[in-house]
Amino acid sequence: MGKMVKVGMADLNICLPPDCITTLGLGSCVGVVVYDPVRKISGMVHIMLPDSTKIKNNENMAKFADTGIDELIKYLIKAGASRASLVSKIAGGAQMFAFNSNNDMLRIGDRNVEAVKEKLKRLRIPILAEDTGLNYGRTIEFNPETAELLIKSVGKPSKTL
User: Fold this and answer.
1) What is the pTM of this model?
2) What is the pairing mode between strands 127-132 and 87-92?
3) Is the dihedral of CA 13, 15, 21, 27 positive or negative?
């Protein structure tokens, strides 16, 4: 077993076997794993917000779905991943507060998931598995060797995608 590479909020990183990569406490945020299953190079970005174009002076690329996924792909390709073989798995985007509202600010989890899916579709990166929505947080770990995404939530059985 290698080391566990940690990805913080609004952060991204890549890893190679035998290491695994993890991000903790995804609430309305979405964890996006993009990987090359042939070369086993994988990366993860912890997306907090759907759209960087609404923010002036965006210093942090990883925070937003649109810029974070582009940035992650750059890192993967620099590490030797093949752009043509990239695939993805996504998790998170929970609605952490119990109220029904169409107020977009409150639907941030849904909007993050939509933005991530839209971006991946535009980049033609297939989503092989997802665990999104509902009302609980998730911690995710990805193993590039097996391409398994482990999802842990408090008070729920772990699951593997």
Assistant:
1) 0.95
2) parallel
3) positive
pLDDT, tens digit, for every residue of 74-112? Answer: 999 999 999 999 999 999 999 887 666 566 667 899 999
CB 94 within 8 A of CB 136: yes
pLDDT of amino acid 101? 59
Q: How many CB atoms lie within 10 A of CB 158?
A: 10
The residue whose two tokens read 């080391």 is: 3
Element (H, E) at 76: helix 65-78
Residues paired with 32 in a beta bridge: 45, 90
Known catalytic residues?
29
Task: Point out which residues pair with 127 in neighbouring strands.
Answer: 88
Alpha carbon 138 to its chain centroid, in Å, reads: 11
